[in-house]
Amino acid sequence: MASREVLAELLWAEKYRPRTLDEIVNQEEIVSRLKKFVEEKNMPHLLFAGPPGTGKTTAAHCLAHDLYGEEYHRYMLELNASDERGIDVIRSKVKEFARTRVPGEIPFKIVLLDEADNMTADAQQALRRLMEMYTANTRFILIANYPSKIIEPIQSRCAVFRFTPLKKEDVVGRLKWIADQENVEYDINALETIYEISEGDMRRAINILQAAAALGKVTVESVYKVVGLAHPREVREMIKLALDGRFEEARAKLRDLMINYGLSGLDIIKQIHREIFSGEIKLPEEYKVMIADYAGEIQFRLVEGADDEIQLNAFLARLAYVGRKFKV
Questions:
Q1: Where are the alpha helices (DSSP H) in the chain?
Q2: Going by C-beta distance under 8 Å and a sequence separation of 6 or more, which residues neighbour residue 38?
Q3: What secondary structure does DSSP assign to 258-274, as a single string?
Q4: Which end of the chain is more exposed for a tag (fewer CB within 10 A), N or C?
Q5: Which residues of 97-129 are buried (b: 16+ CB within 10 A; e: fewer)?
Q6: Mean pLDDT of 76-102
Q7: pLDDT band at residue 84 under the 50/70/90 scheme
Q8: 3 state SS of 197
Q9: What's this model's pTM, rounded to 2 decimal places?
């Protein structure tokens, strides 16, 4: 028991240990550019853009740590989605922090605005003015999943860094390290499945691993169970039944998926779309085009509020029709 507590302490310390730019993986070009700012002890306003879980916030903290040292939190104001970020916060809290000067080797402080694409239009307009007025002693780092939601005047004031999803070997390697440290049993196929589901989002991958480990050994089945998705094998079976013209059996399989896994119509249509192009179902390209086009139409209807079961039954009926007519 004591050893487990020591391990938990070590992992906690590792999680919250200040990072350096050298520890960032899969973003080599970005790291090299940020290192130049550290060498010059100067930098412009920055905009970190890219998918979630790719290291944008971590990179900002690493940059601040390399600039200011272990006490970098004293020189950085961080606001994220849990904070109110309307125009009042920008005019008061951010402005008050930005206007004061910093004694020391680095002549500026950092304001880190996480998920800046969720800021209101008025707040962005106020921020635009602050970035102009206090650029001598404050630098802003904006982090956004969707940079198009940042107004153009702010984008033009920033150097843009575009983060890419993490590579498979990086994600699987890190998951393996975590599982080994925690003495969690796992199948390597399960870790690869986690990567495919997370789509390069390291934060989501670690959360899935932790949830699956709570059920015991981490297997492919347990991974799909904790993320609330049907096993691809069962989705492929439903598609093949429909293409074989066995509509009633395909419909029964659909009901099983919706009831047993508690899936919505949108969840199922996304999995169907993924399986059509996964290579596991052998179809001529012209049929894939036809099916993908109709899947898009069904997805649109579901988003607009149509009944899940009726729309998915219609989709399976179309697959059965295609299968019988063209003898797929």
A1: 2-16, 28-40, 56-68, 87-89, 95-99, 121-133, 152-156, 168-181, 188-198, 202-213, 220-227, 232-243, 247-260, 265-276, 285-303, 308-326
A2: 21, 63, 66, 67
A3: HHHS---HHHHHHHHHH
A4: N
A5: bbeeeeeeebebbbbbbbbbbebeeebbebbbe
A6: 74
A7: low
A8: helix
A9: 0.75
